[in-house]
Amino acid sequence: MNPDMSKWTTVSSRLVKSQGEREQHWIEWSVKDSFNHGVYSSSFVLYKPEAGAADADSVLPIDHLTGSLGKVLEHFYPFAGRLIKPEKDKVARLFCNNAGALFTHKRFDGVVSDLMDVEQFQPNELISGLYDVHPAAEVFDKSGLPTLIIQVTDFTCGTRCLSFSWSHTVVDGISGTHFLRSWAQIARGEPVSLMPVHDRSLLAPRKPSISRILDEGPCRFVDNVIQEPAAVKFTMPEEGIGSKTFHLSARGHESHEMTRFLTLVNGRPRLKDFPAGYFGNFVVPAVSVLTVGELLSNSLSYAATMIKRSCEEVDEVAIRDNIDWSAGNTIDPYTLGNKLFLPGDPRASLHTVLGSWMPWFPFYELDFGGGKPSLGLFNRFRMRAIATGSCFALPTSTYTNHQGDLRIIIFGEKNMLGELDDQL
Fold this sequence. Notes:
Number of strands: 16
Shape: globular
Radius of gyration: 22 Å
CATH class of the domain at 5-201: Alpha Beta
Distance between the termini: 28 Å
Number of helices: 8
CATH superfamily of the domain at 5-201: Chloramphenicol acetyltransferase-like domain
Helix content: 10-25%
Structural class: alpha+beta
Strand content: 15-25%
Strand order of the largest sheet: 1-6-8-9-3-14
């Protein structure tokens, strides 16, 4: 990407620290954290000042944002910490040292439409706060990487963009949105409705049962995925990987080929007495497998029933088995670009569709005291070949005059996206 940086001005950049005092300490990863190294999850919301307002400060004041952020970080202190990686090929560790979340305020010399098409949005790193941080570097600076990166971008039309990017190693989307809701609550002068729980030992494997699961083969949680030869390697399609946004989705394979739908299930409410505020990664994949012919010859309700059934099978026994299985199958995150994850891993084949259902994402709840946003979008970039077939469903808003609709973002081979474009 070679953007025109002459239109960008950095107004300020600061580190926002927790206002509470806490002893510095390391947090050890759970087995559910270990599959997300090097990934940042990024989204943004747009705020438009009301007619007659001087500027976006009337809706989203910078000082109010940073002040409330310092307060919420007292409770969500891992987001004020650092990812420390000593050298190449080593996994970064989480150090809770209150170094502070990175908060940058920028100005773009243009209107929103100069930078993005909100109807056919393409991921844009420039509004994410990640452009200047380079989180994909093989060796971090000794001071480490921020776990939370916030960027505010002002446009000449008066719109203000608030972008939030957090390390996916630290938390999943459930915990990330828990943080955002809590931040907005504090900004509005309200108490945090759900306190975070930072005890990652809650997802510790049952050590005696690991060998049983490995000896007997994949647990029932993963026994419906197609076994792949261990020697299979990922190759980047010659035409490259791209993304395109549709209101509908589709994908084509031969009728005899197997296709898999993988969806991520929140494990928190599925374990007895497990804290709803668990702050970390705890999503579990549910996999449905059919031939393309079976899928196309049956009704839509048949496919929906298969997906629903696979999700219902993710009960407490299956989740605990999966935690044990994951603990015994640690994957080197820095080989993912060249090698298969594991035989039978649901992401091993380009015949897998990964669906992420995100209408629950609190885009339009993020009122920091001056009103709700007009638009919220997932901002994912740096997609690899393993992400081909990923689909994300998000809510729309009045900004696009499609309130109540779903916005579908599909990642796939560029030639496939072109064929879809011709059909729609």
